Amino acid sequence: MSSKVVTSLMAESILLSKAAQVISGYSPITVFLVGSIVIFLVVYNKRRSRLVKLIEKIPGPAAMPFLGNAIEMNVDHDELFNRVIGMQKLWGTRIGINRVWQGTAPRVLLFEPETVEPILNSQKFVNKSHDYDYLHPWLGEGLLTSTDRKWHSRRKILTPAFHFKILDDFIDVFNEQSAVLARKLAVEVGSEAFNLFPYVTLCTLDIVCETAMGRRIYAQSNSESEYVKAVYGDLIFRLTVDYKLHQSYINTLHGFSNMVIRERKAELAILQENNNNNNNNAPDAYDDLGKKKRLAFLDLLIDASKEGTVLSNEDIREEVDTFMFEGHDTTSAAISWTLFLLGCHPEYQEQVAEELDSIFGDDKETPATMKNLLDMRYLECCIKDSLRLFPSGKVVPAGTQAIIMTYALHRNPRVFPKPEQFNPDNFLPENCAGRHPFAYIPFSAGPRNCIGQKFAILEEKAVISTVLRKYKIEAVDRREDLTLLGELILRPKDGLRVKITPRD
Q: Annotation-wise, does 203 bind a ligand?
């Protein structure tokens, strides 16, 4: 053995001896805690180094330690959406993926069908990201925010509620509230310009409340009611920093839902008792106007709880509130954008009018049937292209949080020629043939796609067709002049200003 090796061994022995002397001065608990921390830091550092190494292979802007890309993203709320889209165009157009650092947390942006499909089509990655946690105070763990087994169980329970036979029962609600909207718009005939968004929002709130809970709230007639203000007052999209006000809104929303659930359960219990006493020949429930009460989403949940599925009142409220949330603002945005775009393109609006004339003739009053709505094929193309240009946002976690950039995905020139143009012909059958199934996903895709997409399309057709049978729409603002806010839905900062005239 060489003298160098002997010297090295002696040095290690001395160090170990001194380390043992130092450790002997501490209690076993202290030694255990310090050792655990050291082991944790070593393991964490190893995993973190691997994560950083893999993430940095994805193109994206250089990040600062601890801050990440905070400087690049430090812009006004009005500018944030455009900044993110700009980064996507700069760094990710070649392979359909890029990354940014939110502090020390990486975010991967996906916007090509080939990069989106593995995430959305996965049966493993079905849990929502932590960005959805701020919805929990209102929605609890309903279908939108629930995870793992609870989500699978709820999805199975709720799927039958959106069968076409069930949806047919909702057509009358669509028609009645659309007719109210048309009457409300009459006051704007002759005005230079007005914001379409609030009118449509109140209409969809009336629709979703009656279809979800079987209760009319008359939002279009009384927009100052406590419940309407709680939903409509930007509760979700601009959560107030005032905790008391926020909690007041939540209490109002939950209080209304809980009251409706209790009352409806009591009504159904009385009906069941009458049925038992009258050999199942008891009359159906009727409302205050003597009309037969329609089946609501709430009734289907209550029935499910009777058939062996354990759903508490809280479980039912979570799903009713989720239906209210998902079926309100997203649908109003889709309707508003479609009407606005048709106002920008009178040639397409005229084609829709001709289609409606072929279905209804000169009749502007007869409500649409399910068959009528299904026959509105060109209007559906218009709605789909509107949803292509102005979709809702979807965030799906997969280890590192993956953000599906639907706005960019739907502007892929390989899929949609002249992608910035509104062109309903994109969705004619011959143009859809052979299209990648994940190239167009306004309702998301895969196992966590939107369960209510058929409901939404039917509602949008009913509302838009009712308006266009009575009015011509003319957009006042140019699309390129609008400031877009990328929130859970894509909304215009200053609304959508249009003019209307009665249709001859």
A: no
